[in-house]
Protein backbone atom coordinates (compact mmCIF):
# COMPACT_ATOMS: atom_id res chain seq x y z
CA UNK A 1 0.00 0.00 0.00
CA UNK A 2 1.04 3.57 -0.61
CA UNK A 3 2.62 5.53 2.20
CA UNK A 4 4.47 8.25 0.32
CA UNK A 5 2.01 10.84 -1.02
CA UNK A 6 0.14 11.75 2.14
CA UNK A 7 -3.30 10.76 0.86
CA UNK A 8 -3.78 8.48 3.88
CA UNK A 9 -3.88 11.61 6.03
CA UNK A 10 -7.37 12.15 4.65
CA UNK A 11 -9.52 10.09 7.06
CA UNK A 12 -11.63 8.38 4.40
CA UNK A 13 -8.59 7.44 2.30
CA UNK A 14 -6.84 6.19 5.43
CA UNK A 15 -9.84 4.03 6.29
CA UNK A 16 -10.16 2.66 2.74
CA UNK A 17 -6.42 1.91 2.64
CA UNK A 18 -6.61 0.05 5.94
CA UNK A 19 -9.52 -1.95 4.54
CA UNK A 20 -7.46 -2.66 1.41
CA UNK A 21 -4.79 -4.21 3.63
CA UNK A 22 -7.39 -6.36 5.38
CA UNK A 23 -8.89 -7.41 2.04
CA UNK A 24 -5.45 -8.19 0.57
CA UNK A 25 -4.61 -10.31 3.62
CA UNK A 26 -7.92 -12.20 3.38
CA UNK A 27 -7.37 -12.72 -0.35
CA UNK A 28 -3.88 -14.01 0.38
CA UNK A 29 -5.19 -16.51 2.93
CA UNK A 30 -7.78 -17.72 0.41
CA UNK A 31 -5.21 -17.97 -2.38
CA UNK A 32 -2.85 -19.97 -0.17
CA UNK A 33 -5.62 -22.31 0.94
CA UNK A 34 -6.75 -22.88 -2.65
CA UNK A 35 -3.25 -23.51 -4.01
CA UNK A 36 -2.34 -25.80 -1.12
CA UNK A 37 -5.71 -27.53 -1.08
CA UNK A 38 -6.01 -26.95 2.64
CA UNK A 39 -8.42 -25.19 4.94
CA UNK A 40 -12.07 -24.33 4.87
CA UNK A 41 -12.09 -22.64 1.47
CA UNK A 42 -15.72 -21.58 1.53
CA UNK A 43 -15.32 -19.94 4.93
CA UNK A 44 -12.24 -18.08 3.69
CA UNK A 45 -14.19 -17.00 0.61
CA UNK A 46 -17.05 -15.79 2.81
CA UNK A 47 -14.59 -13.89 5.00
CA UNK A 48 -13.23 -12.08 1.94
CA UNK A 49 -16.69 -11.26 0.58
CA UNK A 50 -17.72 -9.98 4.02
CA UNK A 51 -14.85 -7.48 3.85
CA UNK A 52 -15.40 -6.54 0.22
CA UNK A 53 -19.10 -5.72 0.26
CA UNK A 54 -19.09 -2.87 2.79
CA UNK A 55 -15.77 -1.58 1.45
CA UNK A 56 -16.94 -1.22 -2.13
CA UNK A 57 -20.22 0.26 -0.94
CA UNK A 58 -18.30 2.94 0.98
CA UNK A 59 -16.16 3.69 -2.06
CA UNK A 60 -19.07 3.86 -4.49
CA UNK A 61 -21.48 5.85 -2.36
CA UNK A 62 -18.90 8.28 -0.99
CA UNK A 63 -15.62 8.90 -2.75
CA UNK A 64 -16.71 7.69 -6.19
CA UNK A 65 -19.89 9.79 -6.12
CA UNK A 66 -17.87 12.92 -5.41
CA UNK A 67 -15.34 12.06 -8.10
CA UNK A 68 -18.11 11.51 -10.67
CA UNK A 69 -19.59 14.89 -9.78
CA UNK A 70 -16.19 16.59 -10.03
CA UNK A 71 -15.74 15.01 -13.46
CA UNK A 72 -12.01 14.74 -14.14
CA UNK A 73 -11.75 11.15 -12.86
CA UNK A 74 -15.22 9.95 -13.87
CA UNK A 75 -13.89 7.54 -16.50
CA UNK A 76 -11.50 5.95 -13.99
CA UNK A 77 -14.33 5.65 -11.47
CA UNK A 78 -16.55 3.88 -14.01
CA UNK A 79 -13.76 1.41 -14.75
CA UNK A 80 -13.23 0.73 -11.05
CA UNK A 81 -16.97 0.22 -10.51
CA UNK A 82 -17.03 -2.27 -13.39
CA UNK A 83 -14.15 -4.09 -11.73
CA UNK A 84 -16.11 -4.16 -8.45
CA UNK A 85 -19.04 -5.72 -10.31
CA UNK A 86 -16.78 -8.25 -12.01
CA UNK A 87 -15.00 -9.34 -8.83
CA UNK A 88 -18.19 -9.46 -6.77
CA UNK A 89 -19.90 -11.35 -9.58
CA UNK A 90 -17.29 -14.09 -9.59
CA UNK A 91 -16.91 -14.39 -5.83
CA UNK A 92 -20.63 -14.15 -5.14
CA UNK A 93 -21.70 -16.66 -7.78
CA UNK A 94 -19.51 -19.56 -6.73
CA UNK A 95 -21.34 -22.87 -6.79
CA UNK A 96 -20.79 -23.95 -3.22
CA UNK A 97 -21.20 -27.63 -4.16
CA UNK A 98 -18.69 -27.48 -7.03
CA UNK A 99 -16.63 -24.30 -6.66
CA UNK A 100 -14.63 -23.06 -9.65
CA UNK A 101 -11.44 -22.29 -7.75
CA UNK A 102 -9.46 -21.31 -10.89
CA UNK A 103 -12.08 -18.61 -11.53
CA UNK A 104 -11.66 -17.43 -7.93
CA UNK A 105 -7.88 -17.31 -8.33
CA UNK A 106 -8.26 -15.23 -11.49
CA UNK A 107 -10.63 -12.87 -9.65
CA UNK A 108 -8.09 -12.56 -6.84
CA UNK A 109 -5.48 -11.52 -9.41
CA UNK A 110 -7.85 -8.85 -10.70
CA UNK A 111 -8.58 -7.76 -7.13
CA UNK A 112 -4.86 -7.32 -6.46
CA UNK A 113 -4.46 -5.11 -9.55
CA UNK A 114 -7.64 -3.22 -8.64
CA UNK A 115 -6.40 -2.37 -5.16
CA UNK A 116 -3.05 -1.29 -6.58
CA UNK A 117 -4.80 1.03 -9.06
CA UNK A 118 -6.85 2.64 -6.31
CA UNK A 119 -3.93 2.99 -3.90
CA UNK A 120 -1.39 4.34 -6.37
CA UNK A 121 -3.65 6.04 -8.89
CA UNK A 122 -7.13 7.02 -7.81
CA UNK A 123 -6.55 7.90 -4.16
CA UNK A 124 -3.65 10.31 -4.74
CA UNK A 125 -5.51 11.84 -7.70
CA UNK A 126 -8.66 12.23 -5.62
CA UNK A 127 -6.79 14.27 -3.03
CA UNK A 128 -5.80 16.71 -5.77
CA UNK A 129 -9.10 16.70 -7.66
CA UNK A 130 -11.66 17.10 -4.90
CA UNK A 131 -12.31 20.38 -3.11
CA UNK A 132 -12.32 20.49 0.68
CA UNK A 133 -16.12 20.77 0.66
CA UNK A 134 -16.32 17.31 -0.96
CA UNK A 135 -14.01 15.84 1.67
CA UNK A 136 -16.16 17.40 4.38
CA UNK A 137 -19.21 15.60 2.95
CA UNK A 138 -17.56 12.17 2.77
CA UNK A 139 -15.27 12.20 5.79
CA UNK A 140 -16.52 9.74 8.39
CA UNK A 141 -17.13 11.16 11.83
CA UNK A 142 -15.36 8.11 13.28
CA UNK A 143 -12.57 6.27 11.58
UniProtKB/TrEMBL annotation:
Gene3D superfamilies: nmb1532 protein domain like (1.20.120.520). It comes from the Bacteria. Residues 15-126 form the Hemerythrin-like domain. It comes from Micromonospora globispora. InterPro entries: Hemerythrin-like. This is Hemerythrin.
